[in-house]
C-alpha cells in the first residue's frame, strides 16, 4: 500500500476514487459476462464445424477408393476470393466471414472419371468448413484475449483498488478524528490554564 497523506484533500481524493471504481466495476463485470457467453457460443460452433468436417470425411471414406489413381483436384477447389468483414462484440473487433468463392474451372467430362464431380464438391465443402472453423477460432482467440484482460481488471478493482481505497478512507478518518480529539483536549487544557 502506497503512503497516503492524512489530509482532507486526500480523503476527498480517496472517496472520489472509490466512487469511480464502484461505478466502473459493474460495467466491467457485464462485459466479462458477455465475453464469457460469446466464448461458450463460439466453442459450440467450433465443435459443430469439426463434427461437420468429420461427417464429410466419413462420407468421403466410403468411395475414396475410387481415387486409387492420383488425380489433382486442387485446381477445381481453389479459392478465388475470401471476403471477411469486421464485427464488434463487447468492444472487440472480430473477423466475420462474408463470402467464399471458388475459382470456376471447367471440368472436362471426357478426360475425368464420373466420380470426379462428387470429389470436387466434397473438397469444396471441406475447404469451406475449414475456413469457417479457422475464422471462428480467430474470433475465439481475440475474445479470449479480451476476456483475460477484462477479468484482470475486474479482479484488480474487486480485490485491490476498492479495498485499498476503503482502507485509506478508514485510516484518514481515524487520524483526523484523533487530531480533532487532541485539538479539543488542548483547548480545554489551555482554557483551564487561563482560568
Compact summary:
The chain is mainly alpha-helical.
* H/E element order: HEEH
- Radius of gyration in whole Å, from Cα? 33 Å
Oligomer status: single chain
Percent helix among the residues? 55-70%
What is the overall number of helices?
2
In round numbers, the mean pLDDT is 86
Shape: rod-shaped
Strand order of the largest sheet: 1-2
Distance between the termini: 47 Å
- Number of distinct beta strands: 2
Q: What fraction strand? A: 5-15%
List low-confidence stretches. Answer: none
Protein structure class = mainly alpha
The major β-sheet equals: 2 strands, antiparallel
Can you walk me through this structure?
With 195 residues, the protein is mostly helical. The chain has a domain of 130 residues. The chain is 69% helix and 11% strand. The protein contains 2 helices and 2 strands. It has a two-stranded antiparallel sheet. Strand 1 and strand 2 form a beta hairpin. Helix 1 packs antiparallel against helix 2. The radius of gyration is 33 Å and the shape is rod-shaped. The mean pLDDT is 86.
Topology:
Blueprint: H1 8-63, E1 79-89, E2 92-102, H2 116-194
Antiparallel strand pairs: 1-2
Key structural traits:
about 200 residues, mainly alpha
